[in-house]
Amino acid sequence: MGHKKVNLNFSCPFEVVTKKNRGSILMKNPYLIKQIVEAVNELPVKLSIKIRLGYDDFSQAKVLLDTLKYNEISKVFLHARLAEQFYKGDVNLKEFSL
What we know:
Elements: E1 5-9, H1 15-18, H2 30-40, E2 46-54, H3 59-68, E3 75-82, H4 93-96
Parallel strand pairs: 1-2, 2-3
Helix pairs in contact: 2-3
């Protein structure tokens, strides 16, 4: 369709999205995200991703970023909360500094 950029949103916490195995629930499956990223990297587009610190565990973002470190990603947007927090509560600056 001629698009030059693609942003994959792996940060949406809402149940209407996550119950379809989309959005932030994918943070629990970094290898599936890696497969998706690798498939998009075959296209002539710049790729960016949106993630959270994790779905229900702060280690999930670290595992995911380690899994993706050799892939072409132009930008990573990191929401400094777990998905189960939705948009409430304090951001976690300690974990955000990964």
